[in-house]
Amino acid sequence: MHLTIKKKLIGAFAIVLILMSGLAWVSITRLAGSHSDLEHLVNVTSKNALIAAEMEADFIEIEAAQAEMLLVRGDAELDVFDRKIKERMESLRKHRLALEATSDDQVRAQLRELDTAFDRYVELEAQISEFLHADSAGRALAMSQGVGEEAYKGLLAGLERLEESLPFGVSSAAADPAGLRNGLTTVRKAVDAARIAEQSALLQEDLEQRKATMATAKTQFEQAVAALDSFRRTNRQADTALVASAVEALADLQTISGETAALALSNTSEQASALFAGPVMSLIASSKAVLSDIAQHNIDAMQAETQLSAEHYTKARNTLLTVAAVAIAVGLSAAIILSVSIGRGLDRAIALVRKVAAGDRRVDTSHVLRDEIGDLMNEMKKMNDALGEMANAAERISDGDLTVKVTRRSDYDGLGMALEKMIEKLREVMEGATVSSAAVADSSLAMSATAEQLSQGSTEQAAAAEEASAAMEQMTGNIRQTADNAAQTEKIAVQSSKDAAESGAAVAEAVSAMKTIAEKINIIQEIARQTDLLALNAAVEAARAGNHGKGFAVVASEVRKLAERSQQAAAEIGELSGKTVSVSERAGEMLQSLLPSIQRTSDLVQEISAATREQNVGADQINLAIRELDTVIQQNAASATEAASVSQSLATQSDQLRGLISYFDLGANMSSSSSRVPSRQGGGAQAQSGSSRVSTHRAQPERARPAAHAEEGGFALDLGPEELSDAEFERHQAAS
Amino acid sequence: MTNNSMEANRPDLLLIFRLEGEAFALSVSWVHEILDAQPWAPVPNSGPFAPGLINVRGAVVPVIDIRHRLGLPPARSERTGRMIVFEHVIDCVSHKLAFNADSVEQVIECDLASLEPVPPLGTSWPQECLRGVVRNGDELVILLETETTFAPPTEPFVAA
Fold first, then answer.
1. Chain segment A691-733, per-residue pLDDT in tens
2. Fold of B3-149
3. Across the interface, do A540 and B33 touch by the CB < 8 Å criterion?
4. pLDDT tens digits for range A394-405
5. From A538, which residue of chain B is nearest by alpha-carbon distance?
6. Cβ–Cβ under 8 Å, residues A155 and A246
7. How many other β-carbons are positioned within 10 Å of the β-carbon of residue B17?
8. Which of A603, A685, A716, B25 ranks highest by number of CB atoms within 10 Å?
9. Do the beta carbons of residue B35 and residue B56 sit within 8 Å?
């Protein structure tokens, strides 16, 4: 039987699920039972207990209302309490009906007992209400104070009028007026005493006392009637009308008092209180006891139900625990068996895969059970075999056999495709490498020649650089001399600029001095003029003195001549100095205009000097640069020689490469390209022998071309640039 | 005439001065002194003969316009030249008078006997002011007649 893991899993889960459903059914059933128990407890039993308690409360309310009713007077207030009691009674009846509907027989018997008590109470309550409404004491008081008072006052007024009508003094012969007055006073006193007795009787609580006091009042009234009667008889003259009205008033008062006494002695309130204190209280007490019994009964029922519910719970728990234990045991055993069997199979598969991944293909893929693990093992075996094929192919490639055929196992076979591509690319690369190594060998020969050429060129360059250096040094000498000359010129120019400025100042000074001289000359001229004047005056004086003044006249004439001469000389000097001033002023102006030019010349000469110095530095730098250039050229020459030797070694390396590439077997068509190798080596050897290299290089492309064309398409070697460099090389040779 | 008696005794001394380049002479005996030219204070309504006054060492001296008297053009400037102060007798009272000259040359000795009269047609000047012409070297010097020249004008002269 093909018992797969899938089927095993389905079986185990089905058993566990069936057990789970059983468990659920049991728990639902039990929960339903428990729910109905709880509902009964809440809706019936506890509610009944509550109703009983409310009924008890109603009774207490009724009792309280009844008690309060006894304390109030007046119909309106009594009606309020009446209504209250009626409401409570109504609610009691309602609660009773509700209780009867949901109660058992015991409770119903108790309720019937309660009904009889209740009916009795209703009768009693009606009686009490009647008594209270009657209120005899109150009405007696009202009568005494209302109608009685009125009658009393009327009587008093009548008696007063009667007294006034009595005559004063002893004029009356019939009767003694004092005696008559005493009679009236006796009547009034008796009436007063009767009134007081009546009032006090109304205020007295005790029935017997009240009766006694009322009797006293009655006696007083009778005495008053008797006194009035005696007064009527003794006083015949008295106004009969007045007396009659007084008698009538007294009779009224007596009647009213009698009625009041009757009312006061009937005493309905007392009877009501007695009724309440006696039968009503006992009835209410018995009813309350019955109700508390009912409440207790219901509480007991609640406890019993709770007990029952606890028993149900224990039973249900045990059943559920048993079923759950069975389900857990079944589920656990199934889980362990399945996980162990799957785990073992998978462990084997993982170990196998790990080994294959590590490249070890010696693996055991046999499996006993015919389940999914067994299938997996079979597939792994197939995979291993396929890998083995690939490994064989790769091994052959590694041995250098590129003719091996690899077929991809599917369109998604990355390894197969990669191997295919690898073989293909390796073939391409190896073919390319063969061709390239040949090209490298050729190129290295050409490079060797070029390097040689380069070396020679560098030598020539070095010679030229040395010549340039010598010329430059000579030039530097010239420039330095020029710089020295310029520096000297600069000094001279600066000096002449300074001198010119000084000359300008000197000329200005001379001008001012000349001006001073001119001024002084004027003074001299003035002096000469004055002298002339004096001499003239002296001559005049001498002339006037006659012969005595003759000598003096001669002196005066001489003085005058001298003065004239000095005046003339001063005038000449003045003229000359004026001329000199103008001339030297002009000279000063000319010098001033000359000064900027001299300054400018000096500046320019300084600039020339600076430029020459810079030129000197530049020339030195050029010299240095040429020397460095020379060094570089020397290095280049050395590098070129080195490059020649490097290209030689490159040729050797390319031969070695060719040897290495021949390791790969590419099939038959590559043999022609590899046959070229020895001829290249010969060319490389020739390149080292200097004079004949031109002809050798010429010969090479001619030989190489047919060889290149002989190969398969795509390997046309273009040696044009090499020819060009040959031509240049020839030109250089001609130049040197 | 004291003048004439003196003339007989000795040769006359003449002061030579110049106006407009012409040399004039004046007898030294009347000359008081020679001053530098100075401005005169004009006298209102004085007439052309003596237009102003100057102060000579504290004495107020009238200035005669000799150019106007001799019919010469007025001087270009009052400040140049010299001023000759001389004494003149008017109505037997000696007065000091002054006039301007362009320059004063010298005092020469001259014999008035060699005085030559001015030919009446030779000059346009007022004849009565000229006493005669004297030779001084090569130059001719006109000797002025002081009496008439400096006499205040009693009647208007016939001006040139």
1. 333 333 443 443 434 443 434 444 444 444 444 444 444 444 4
2. OB fold (Dihydrolipoamide Acetyltransferase, E2P) (2.40.50)
3. yes
4. 888 888 888 888
5. B33
6. yes
7. 27
8. B25
9. yes
User: Is A536 near chain B, with CB under 8 Å?
Assistant: yes
CA distance B130 to chain A (A): 22
Tokens of A691: 């004079």
Q: Mutation target for B interface from A530, A534, A536, A547: give the one with most B CBs within 10 A.
A: A536
Query: Taking Cα atoms as reference points, which of A414, A350, A400, A342 lies closest to residue A371?
Result: A342
Checking if the pLDDT of A492 tops 70, the result is yes
Structure tokens at B24: 């004039």
Q: Is A40 exposed, middle or buried (0-12, 13-18, 19+ CB in 10 A)?
A: middle
Distance, CA of A587 to CA of A577 (rounded, Å): 15
d(CA B66, CA B15): 16
Percent pLDDT > 90 in chain A is 1
Helices and strands of chain B, counted as H and E runs = 3, 11
Count interface pairs A-B at CB distance under 8 A: 38
Q: Is the pLDDT of residue A175 over 80?
A: no
pLDDT 10s digits, A37-87 = 888 888 888 888 888 888 888 888 888 887 887 777 777 777 888 888 888
Domain spans of chain B?
3-149
Of B28, B35, B104, the CB nearest to A544: B28
Count of C-beta atoms within a 10 Å radius of residue B34: 23
Are residues B106 and A547, on separate chains, in Cβ contact within 8 Å?
A: no
- The interface residues of chain B toward chain A in range 34-63, judged by CB-CB distance below 8 A, are 34-36
Cα→Cα distances A602→A479, A608, A713, Å? 21, 10, 83
Measure in Å the smallest separation between the Cα of A585 and chain B Cα atoms.
31
Question: CB of B13 within 8 Å of any CB in chain A?
Answer: yes
Alpha helices in A135-176 (DSSP H): 136-143, 149-165
What Rg, from alpha-carbon coordinates, does chain A have?
85
Distance from the Cα of B159 to chain A's closest Cα (Å) equals: 32
**pLDDT by residue (tens digit) across B86-113?**
888 877 888 889 988 888 888 888 877 7
pTM of the model: 0.35
In this predicted model, what pLDDT tens digit does every residue of A433-450 receive, in sequence order?
Answer: 888 888 888 888 888 888
Average pLDDT of the segment spanning A505-518 = 88
Residues of A in contact with B31 (CB under 8 A): 540, 543-544
User: ipTM of this model?
Assistant: 0.81
Q: Do A533 and B10 touch (CB under 8 A)?
A: no
Tell me, what's the pLDDT at A677? 41
What pLDDT does B122 receive? 58
- Mean pLDDT is highest, among A167-171, A234-238, A485-489, for A485-489
Residue A146 CB coordination number (10 Å)? 11
